[in-house]
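To illustrate the input format used throughout this study, we show a single complete record. The first block contains the structure-token representation of the backbone; no residue identities are included at this stage. The design step must infer an amino acid for every position from geometry alone.
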């Protein structure tokens, strides 16, 4: 029996999903708030018991480790590492853009992911799916205007998936660019989790790090 868990508290909406032997048991998504973070472990325990399991039955854990909400990343990674340590199970980190890309990679050979960063900035990265979903550009931190300028420079069709609560591209127009909203759906990330677990059979909680690029100033 294989029971796996994926946690996202890096990107709004927050969520988690449980999978048993390749079958999704539950997928929860909720607007980011303090209550969700404070009750995350009890919620996971509740749904484990609902399907006649306990936290102790979890074999593998995946956690979105950023970039994203600075506080949210710390909460999710801390929970995942604590669970993995107490259960003596494997845990892996998944980057936010990698997670988003693996949700939409089957639709386009080359596509872009855009994720909100600090105010007036976004992360931008290109991916392809020739063999598997993989990045084909560096992760860029761009202002809104620089990102629009970059997109306007494309003269071939490009699908762009945008994870943002702001209407960044409200007045942007290009006949080559197709924009799609996206957020993290933990239930769609188990193939990525299985791949990472297979690549390294035993992954220590010590190997999971915080993946934030825009660390805020204290008090911001």
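Output of the design step:
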């Amino acid at each position: 029996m294989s029971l796996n868990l994926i946690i996202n508290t890096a990107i709004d909406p927050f969520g988690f999903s449980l999978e048993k032997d390749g079958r999704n048991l539950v997928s929860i998504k909720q607007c980011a708030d303090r209550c969700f973070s404070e009750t995350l472990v009890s919620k996971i325990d509740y749904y484990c018991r609902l399907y006649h399991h306990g936290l102790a039955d979890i074999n593998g854990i995946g956690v979105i480790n950023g970039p994203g909400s600075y506080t949210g990343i710390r909460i999710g990674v801390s929970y995942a590492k604590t669970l993995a340590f107490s259960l003596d199970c494997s845990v892996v980190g998944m980057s936010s853009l990698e997670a988003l890309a693996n949700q939409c990679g089957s639709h386009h050979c080359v596509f872009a992911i855009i994720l909100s960063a600090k105010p007036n900035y976004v992360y931008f990265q290109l991916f392809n799916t020739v063999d598997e979903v993989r990045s084909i550009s560096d992760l860029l931190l761009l202002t809104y205007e620089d990102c629009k300028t970059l997109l306007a420079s494309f003269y071939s069709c490009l699908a762009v998936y945008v994870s943002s609560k702001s209407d960044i591209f409200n007045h942007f127009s290009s006949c080559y660019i197709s924009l799609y909203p996206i957020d993290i759906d933990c239930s769609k990330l188990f193939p990525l989790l299985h791949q990472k677990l297979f690549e390294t059979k035993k992954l220590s909680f010590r190997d999971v790090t915080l993946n934030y690029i825009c660390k805020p100033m204290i008090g911001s």
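Structural context for interpreting the output: DSSP finds six helices and eleven strands in the chain. Helices lie at 34-38, 40-50, 70-87, 96-104, 144-152, 190-199.
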